[in-house]
Amino acid sequence: MKKIPFLMIQGISIFLGFTFWGAGMAKLFHEHQFFGWIGPVWLIEELEPYGLGFYGKFIAYSQIVIGYLLVTTRYKLLGSIMMIPMIGNILIVTISLNWRGTPFVLGFLMLLNLILLWQYRDFFRPMIDEGKSKYDLKTRSGRTLNGHLVWLAGLSLQLIAIQISYINWIAACSVVLLGLLLSTLSFYLEKRTASKPTFEAS
């Protein structure tokens, strides 16, 4: 397989991330008033008669966290790995409830996710070998603790926005956008830190 262009990989990551992050937010936002294209937004209500309402919420929060890993493009590998069991869980639910069409959509999304994982295939041989491997890892941009914390603050705002949605929808959406902006700034923070000159003691 030829190397896939970076912008295409970013696009797949954002698309998958928005799909599942939006789906999770829509399930938990007040009256399901959130942007998203994949459903059903009423999954929790659908599962409650079977005593599985809490499981529905678990799926929703998993979608938010995993989708956010991808939509912000900061943790594509981690998000792609976590996406596999999540799609598997959703697939089993849809098959059990006899929802037609949904398994085919999930199959397409899984295919996109596998394309993402293929770009990080150099990471998997050391995992299989459970230690050092003769296969070298490709060089990628560094990450810093400050960048991680800024990104995490953005994720936290997504969860806070869910609660705010029960009070004011516009304020909740504003908090969502602020969180996305904050997580995006984590890249800028690291670039700025990397560009600062270092001084050695003489």
Global outline: globular
Query: Any idea what the radius of gyration is?
Result: 19 Å
Distance between the termini: 51 Å
The assigned structural class equals: mainly alpha
Number of strands: 0
Give unreliable regions as ranges. 197-202
How many helices? The count is 8
The percentage of residues in β strands lies in under 5%
**Overall helicity:** 55-70%
N-to-C SSE string, H for helix and E for strand: HHHHHHHH
Domain tally: 2
**Mind describing the biggest β-sheet?**
none
Mean pLDDT across residues: 87
Protein name: DoxX protein
Keywords: Membrane, Transmembrane, Transmembrane helix
Describe the structure.
Keywords: Membrane, Transmembrane, Transmembrane helix. The chain crosses the membrane at residues 12-30, 50-70, 77-99, 105-124, 145-163, 169-189. This is DoxX protein. The chain has 202 residues and is mostly helical. It folds into two domains: 1-140; 141-195. The protein is 69% helix and 0% strand. It is built from eight helices and no strands. The N and C termini lie far apart (51 Å). Residues 197-202 have low confidence and may be disordered.
Tags for this entry?
DoxX protein; membrane; transmembrane helix; transmembrane; disordered C terminus; mainly alpha; 202 residues; 2 domains
In short:
The protein has 202 residues and is mostly helical. The chain has helices at residues 6-28, 43-47, 53-71, 76-96, 102-119, 124-129, 145-164, 169-195.
Helices and strands, with pairings:
Blueprint (H helix, E strand, L loop, with lengths): L5 H23 L14 H5 L5 H19 L4 H21 L5 H18 L4 H6 L15 H20 L4 H27 L7
Keywords: Membrane, Transmembrane, Transmembrane helix
Organism: Algoriphagus pacificus
Protein name: DoxX protein
